Amino acid sequence: MPRLWLGNACTEHMVDRMDLLTQDDFDGILFAMKRLVWLVRNGDALVLPRPVPDDFLRHVAQHTGISPARVHVIAPDADLLTQDLLHSKEILGRLRELVTPDWEFRPYIHDRGAEVFARELGLVTGSRFVAEGGAELLNSKVVFRALAAGAGFAVPDGIPCRTSEDLLRTLHRLLSAHPAVILKRDRAVGGHGNTVITTDPGLEGTGAQRTIVLGDPTDNEQVLKEAGLTATHAPQGEVVLEVFHPNCISVYVEVDCQEHGEAVLLNGGQLRTDQRPPVLTGLALPPRSVPGPAWERFTGEALRMARFMRGLGYRGLASIDAVIDQTGDVWFNEVNARLGGSTHLHHIAETLVGPDWTDSHVLISRFNVRAPALAQLLRAMREHGLAWDSGRGRGIVIASDDTATAGTVEYVVLAHNHEEAGALEDRLTGLLAQHDK
Questions:
Q1: Is the pLDDT at 369 greater than 70, yes or no?
Q2: What is the Cα gyration radius of the chain?
Q3: 148/279 Cα distance (integer angstroms)
Q4: Is 155:227 a contact under the CB 8 Å cutoff?
Q5: Strand blocks (E) in 215-326
Q6: pTM of the predicted model, to two decimals?
């Protein structure tokens, strides 16, 4: 049956303060939503904030076998799919002429706004837990800590904070025993609002947008400003303050909490980061530098967490995130109860290699990569033997394209081992460096 894909990232139900988002944030959201093109089949409909470039759609179609003329893309050219826009004649009106009750509904996140939208189209969405906002509960870092701790999962020492008193007392306690803590906004996306706080000026705050170095543990003005809490309430939303583990490895697994059947582990890997600044740049599937015993502990506990989520009533895809510290201990830090940063990667690998692709291949991705216009880039990749070659079972495809506005792409390297994948990536990096000259 046809499917309706909804690119509703960063909704009113995912982010505490949408008015604090910048244009760069909006552009990043659109960049991520273009990945959904890899998931569509002939007859499907895809609703995105902005149109998909023709060159990118043809590139995806070349590999997935879809016909661009048989995919319904509705894109009103906006920053976000707000509720007003979703229920406009341009989107809802067009879909009412296309969608029938037998269609499957596939939102990026099944929040309450998505549920209201689906009901307007007469679509049955299944899980009552999800329909009542269950995905939003699991995505809340505050709620996640309580659920995870109550179910016996290891979470970093810390506490959710609603007032400045909660924050300052917890900050003093944690920094008296640990070199650093991390401040996280309860409901945010893409690391937005993550701040590392430390007394060590040499510490690298990997995974955070900002690092605050305290000259004196009692110097709290910067921290209070960043948290946005008052003595009585949280006008910008609650925050979580927890121990930060320096030099840790950030890992994830993507699971499917199926409607009929058990929770299934689909893929897993580690986050790739640049050292300066220490920010997320992509994924490596499977992980390259995680000790085997630690990975087994993590995946075993992550699957138990997926079963726990399914027991609550959650249905659909989810990413479960953790860090592995230098002693090999695993600490769970959040769940993303929605499509994740590896959903399209897994689908690309299945499309190009097959359902058992992890038996023979590895995958690495990198996004926000400076590149020329997509047609020029694809031509250069073919000429230099870098494009995906099904006969040799290795090569590179473009997972998302924003060359027309920001001059960047996300690429995916598939190869038989990490050494081969690294060599292909190095060659592409050299090719792109010539473009920048």
A1: yes
A2: 22
A3: 26
A4: no
A5: 239-243, 249-257, 263-273, 280-285, 316-324
A6: 0.94
- Which strands sit side by side in the sheet containing 249-257, from one edge to the other? 330-336, 316-324, 249-257, 263-273, 280-285, 362-370, 408-415, 395-402
* pLDDT score of 31: 82
Assign 55 a pLDDT band (cuts: 50, 70, 90): very high
Distances, alpha carbon 85 to alpha carbons 74, 111, 172, 252, 287, in Å: 12, 16, 45, 33, 40
d(CA 388, CA 414): 8
For residue 422, pLDDT beyond 80? yes
Residue boundaries of the structural domains of the chain:
3-125, 157-243, 357-437
| pLDDT of 217 | 63
Count the alpha carbons within 13 Å of 45 in the hemisphere toward its beta carbon: 17
CA distance 353 to 163: 51
Extract the tokens encoding 293: 């015993």
SS3 per residue for 312-367: HCCCEEEEEEEEECCCCCEEEEEEECCCCCCHHHHHHHHHHCCCCHHHCCEEEEEE
CB neighbours of residue 132 within 10 Å: 13
User: What b/e readout covers 142-161, taking b as 16+ CB neighbours within 10 angstroms?
Assistant: bbbbebbeeeebebbebbbb
Structure confidence at residue 20 (pLDDT): 73
Strand partners, 73: 46
Fold of 357-437: Alpha-Beta Plaits (3.30.70)
- Model confidence at 140: pLDDT above 80: yes
**pLDDT tens track for 90-107:** 999 999 999 999 999 999
